[in-house]
Amino acid sequence: MKTLGAGLPPSTPAVAVENALRLNEAHVHGTLAELPDLLDASRLAGPNVVLIGSVVSLSHVAQEAAHLAA
What we know:
Blueprint: H1 2-5, E1 13-18, E2 26-31, H2 35-41, E3 48-52, H3 59-69
Antiparallel strand pairs: 1-2, 1-3
């Protein structure tokens, strides 16, 4: 992954999001080091948006808020 060569630590949080903001939204969470293998093993077909960094830790907050609003 080019981001690892650019100086980001392998432990940097990352998430791939398929079909963002749709009913069939799906996520694959991991680290930069893990994400390529996790995506290969997943059923995500795309399109995917990949978020990298500390913002990834906020994704659970948004999910909890959506469940409370429903």
